[in-house]
């Protein structure tokens, strides 16, 4: 849960999730144009989202042989409640009592 919340704490990543949710799967160059950020920056954010399972990717070849990396938002749903937070705290490995 903490990794997902951390990934979603960035406005660029929220915009990526929104664009993929509204427009469906998309390849990196087109998505970068739609969101208005560079491809390298988009790749950085997509990697973070993919690492926590919020997006998936699939590499496909066009008829001309060009590779396109398509991304789509994963179906996710988590409820943020006091109980969910209490359960997540049990998994923490950092001792904050100093």
Question: Nutshell version of this structure?
Answer:
With 98 residues, the chain is an alpha+beta fold.
pLDDT < 50 stretches: none
Beta-strand content bin: 15-25%
The name of the CATH architecture is: Orthogonal Bundle
Question: Which fold does the CATH topology refer to?
Answer: Arc Repressor Mutant, subunit A
Could you say how many structural domains there are in total? 1
The radius of gyration over CA amounts to 16 Å
Through-space gap between termini: 24 Å
What does this structure look like?
The chain has five helices and three strands; from the N terminus they run ααβααββα. The chain has a single domain (2-89), classed as Arc Repressor Mutant, subunit A. The model has no long low-confidence stretch (mean pLDDT 90). It is α+β, with helices and mostly antiparallel strands. The protein is elongated. 50% of the residues lie in helices and 16% in strands. It has helices at 2-8, 11-23, 28-35, 39-51, 82-89; strands at 26-27, 55-61, 67-73. It has a three-stranded antiparallel sheet with strand order 1-3-2.
């Amino acid at each position: 849960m903490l990794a997902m919340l951390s990934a979603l704490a960035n406005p660029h990543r929220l915009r990526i999730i929104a664009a993929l949710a509204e427009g469906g799967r998309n390849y990196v160059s087109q998505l970068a144009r739609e969101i208005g950020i560079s491809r390298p920056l988009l790749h950085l954010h997509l990697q973070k989202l993919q690492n926590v399972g919020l997006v998936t990717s699939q590499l496909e070849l066009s008829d001309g042989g060009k590779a396109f990396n398509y991304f789509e938002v994963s179906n996710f749903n988590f409820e943020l409640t006091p109980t969910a937070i209490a359960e997540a705290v049990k998994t923490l490995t950092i001792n904050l009592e100093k």
